Amino acid sequence: xxxxxxxxxxxxxxxxxxxxxxxxxxxxxxxxxxxxxxxxxxxxxxxxxxxxxxxxxxxxxxxxxxxxxxxxxxxxxxxxxxxxxxxxxxxxxxxxxxxxxxxxxxxxxxxxxxxxxxxxxxxxxxxxxxxxxxxxxxxxxxxxxxxxxxxxxxxxxxxxxxxxxxxxxxxxxxxxxxxxxxxxxxxxxxxxxxxxxxxxxxxxxxxxxxxxxxxxxxxxxxxxxxxxxxxxxxxxxxxxxxxxxxxxx
Length: 249
Description:
By secondary structure, this protein is an alpha/beta fold. It has 8 helices and 7 strands. Helix 5 packs parallel to helix 8.
């Protein structure tokens, strides 16, 4: 805890057996109270590995629900456990758990209610092995999103995110997609609701065991991102009234 605020790490897992222990081993348990792993019907032994290394809350989906569906279960469980600060960390070791302190303290001290670990800040993305095509796509999509959503974020596509309980309770994340575009739809909801967002520099790690999506899925994701930003813009202009924004005050 930090000043009595319970900190929960959520791990949305899919075929993470090879990298899970290394990720878990770097989590700072001097402040982290609980770890929740949600396995989205992996084909490997992710669940067995999670239990072996001592993760205290392991949930296994009976069928694959997708990346967004996995996160919905993660946040539901974190709120159920009384989490005041919830940090999503991918168990594929692309993002270092060593930033958990910094992210948690920004929220615990009331500086920001949302913190993103950005791979773009600090110019480390390409040095860390991010494929050039992914880097160009990331920069291009982010540029368009910032215009439509009226923000100045360095990227919307990081999988390293920290939220206050207030944020998770204020938005209807269950109204979002079960696919990869979930992250962007959730960020759209957060910004639409008026919550400020902080970014900190996060080292980039690309290696064989790290998760990735293929070209066709990446194309679908990009289309979904652009659609999300346009829908956000039209809702702000009063042209549309989309269900995912109805919970906002």
